[in-house]
Design brief:
Blueprint: E1 7-13, H1 16-30, E2 35-41, H2 48-57, E3 65-66, H3 74-91, E4 96-100, H4 104-115, E5 120-123, H5 135-146, E6 149-152, H6 155-163, E7 171-173, H7 177-184, H8 186-192, H9 194-197, E8 205-209, H10 213-216, H11 219-232, E9 237-241, H12 244-252, H13 256-261, E10 265-268, H14 273-280, E11 285-288, H15 292-300, E12 304-306, H16 315-318, E13 322-324, H17 330-338, H18 355-364
Parallel strand pairs: 1-2, 1-4, 2-3, 4-5, 5-6, 6-7, 8-9, 8-11, 9-10, 11-12, 12-13
Helix pairs in contact: 1-7, 1-18, 3-4, 4-5, 8-14, 11-17
Length: 368
């Protein structure tokens, strides 16, 4: 089939976790002769060191369209994405659009497409935390309600959608696309051996990532976390990959000095995907408030201490290595891991690095 006759599928990416999810799908679609994938980068999160590294690691080409919307309030960001993306759709109307995850770009592009009667597929659909104070939860609910095709990663996703009255014909469980990215780059990740650069012994250190406003914007909460992490680091080296915003808050609240001087704490800048996963794969434990790492640690059977009140990925708790932990209980959780009192992961169906193939098959069956 000539390129002119191929269905045009826009794949939307706006932040670092999106890149990891779209890369395996982009490569799988490129290998098929059913459609032409067009990569749209909204620029919702843009940092040269972070974004460029991710595109390079994931072997993604320069985006076909870069909306360059930048940061702002939720309304500003969502509005700018909608205005910019609508122009793209008018100029080159796609046959389908694929949105991933739960960021503002996800709901913004889904709204544009839905109002133009362009079919929308949502990859990573059906996730719910039940916490409507999280902007991401609003984005998930709205996107799932207007998407034509909902690709879920696990049975709880199916259940959430059915409970909301979504017809079975719109739901297709495909598995966890994040793990495709890991398997796609497993060779590079293993070769990275990031722990060697930090003079760490495999299996004898932990990794820390914290960035959620609920943790880092509250001076008392962040102080508690710094104290617990600093204390736990005396028994297990902890590599703290500090997001720029987290680093700023640590400085604002006069916590940076005590953290950086704490014995066993290794404060480092954010890393590219390959480098970071090269560190995580040999970790004894992970302390985080991120979403995707909860899944990756379950896949790798690494204890995950999630500093949150809830999670939109409950299967990582019921079947995995993830546990929700309050800030003041982080040190006690680390001790539990060190004492061997932590659950092992079960095998989760379709978390096998082959999700992109199932997504392509699902999309092909709906292309006309």
């Amino acid at each position: 089939m000539s390129e002119q006759n191929l269905a045009v599928v826009h794949i939307i990416a706006g932040a670092r976790p999106n890149f990891m999810k779209v890369a395996p799908l982009f490569h799988a679609l490129k290998a098929e002769n059913c459609c032409r994938p067009v990569l749209v980068h909204t620029g919702q999160h843009y940092d040269v060191n972070m974004s460029d590294a991710f595109f390079s690691d994931l072997q993604l080409p320069e985006p076909d369209h870069h909306l360059e919307v930048g940061s702002g309030t939720h309304a500003e960001q969502t509005g700018r994405v909608m205005i910019a993306y609508e122009k793209i759709c008018f100029e080159q109307r796609p046959d389908w659009i694929v949105v991933v995850g739960d960021i503002n770009s996800t709901v913004a592009c889904a709204l544009v497409a839905a109002k133009l009667c362009i079919p929308v597929a949502h990859l990573e659909a059906g996730l719910r935390s039940g916490d409507l104070t999280m902007p991401e939860e609003i984005n998930r609910i709205v996107t799932d309600s207007i998407a034509n095709l909902l690709w879920t990663p696990s049975p709880d996703g199916d259940a959430h959608l059915k409970a909301a009255g979504v017809d079975d014909s719109r739901i297709d469980r495909v598995g966890n696309i994040m793990l495709d990215a890991y398997e796609m780059l497993r060779g590079k990740i293993e070769a990275a051996a990031t722990y060697e650069k930090l003079d760490l012994t495999p299996g004898q250190y932990g990794v820390v990532t914290l960035h959620r406003p609920s943790n880092v914007d509250d001076p008392a909460k962040l102080k508690t976390l710094v104290e617990r992490i600093s204390s736990a680091a005396q028994r297990c080296d902890l590599v703290f990959a500090a997001h720029p915003r987290t680093r700023q808050k640590l400085n604002d609240f006069d916590l940076m000095t005590s953290l950086s001087n704490a014995k066993g704490v290794h404060l480092v800048d954010p890393m590219g995907y390959v480098e970071f996963m090269g560190l995580v794969r040999k970790a004894k434990l992970v302390i985080t408030d991120s979403g995707g790492i909860q899944e990756e640690t379950t896949y790798l059977d690494i204890p995950c201490i999630t500093v949150r009140d809830n999670t939109e990925r409950p299967i990582t708790i019921t079947d995995g290595t993830n546990r929700l932990t309050a800030p003041d209980a982080v040190e006690a959780a680390v001790d539990q891991v060190l004492e061997g009192e932590w659950p092992k992961a079960k095998t989760i169906e379709m978390w096998d690095g082959k999700t992109a193939g199932r997504v392509v098959a699902s999309l092909k069956s709906r292309l006309h």
